[in-house]
Design a protein that fits this description.
Structural class: alpha+beta
Number of helices: 4
Order of helices and strands: EHHEEEEHEEEH
Largest sheet: 8 strands, mixed
Helix content: 25-40%
Number of strands: 8
Radius of gyration: 19 Å
Strand content: 35-45%
Length: 183
């Protein structure tokens, strides 16, 4: 299986600013009670990515794209087609995928559900999901300090905060720490 990664498209300063701005809102002050961003780093989470081809009467043609399924929490994302990827190696991307490889059937169902939101008749959707490849997606992880320590993630491609990625990132860090053997 080939292993690829995406380079971040936003600078760390933008991710840092987005996290700091979020922490200054009144609602965040209630939930994060005086937490401050004290550090930020770039990490890559592994996704199994399935190329797909979708045809539908409502789409008036064929769409090719990618559905990615993150390996720690099994969260799905429809990824943009045409995104430039780069060859990866273990020194570039130390976080390993966990669990069994995700089956094509699972990816098929995710793409089909997305397409069916717009399509009234199921019979008019033709979907082909191909074999997956491993893709590492960049996230900026902000470390917050206050009464308690916490983390917050920002997407490395858009800079948007990703609240739902916290558990996946924590599991990835835990898995990595279990692989490191003391002295």
């Amino acid at each position: 299986m080939k292993v690829q990664y995406l380079k971040p498209e936003v600078p760390v300063e933008k991710a840092k600013k987005n996290i700091q701005t979020h922490l200054q809102t009144w609602l965040s002050k209630c939930f994060f009670y005086r937490k401050k961003l004290y550090s930020i780093e770039l990490v890559y989470l592994p996704y199994f990515v399935f190329p797909y081809t979708l045809e539908s009467k409502s789409l008036r043609g064929e769409i090719q794209g990618f559905v990615g399924i993150e390996t720690y929490e099994k969260q799905a994302a429809i990824l943009p087609a045409g995104q430039e990827t780069f060859e990866a190696d273990s020194t570039t991307l130390p976080l390993l995928p966990v669990g069994e490889e995700i089956k094509e059937k699972h990816a098929y169902n995710l793409v089909y559900q997305e397409a069916f939101k717009k399509e009234k008749k199921r019979s008019s959707i033709k979907l082909q999901v191909n074999s997956p490849f491993l893709l590492y997606v960049p996230y900026y992880v902000g470390y917050l300090k206050g009464k308690e320590t916490d983390i917050m993630a920002a997407d490395g491609l858009s800079g948007n905060l990703q609240y739902d990625m916290k558990d996946a990132i924590l599991k990835a860090f835990l898995k990595e720490s279990q692989l490191i053997k003391p002295g």
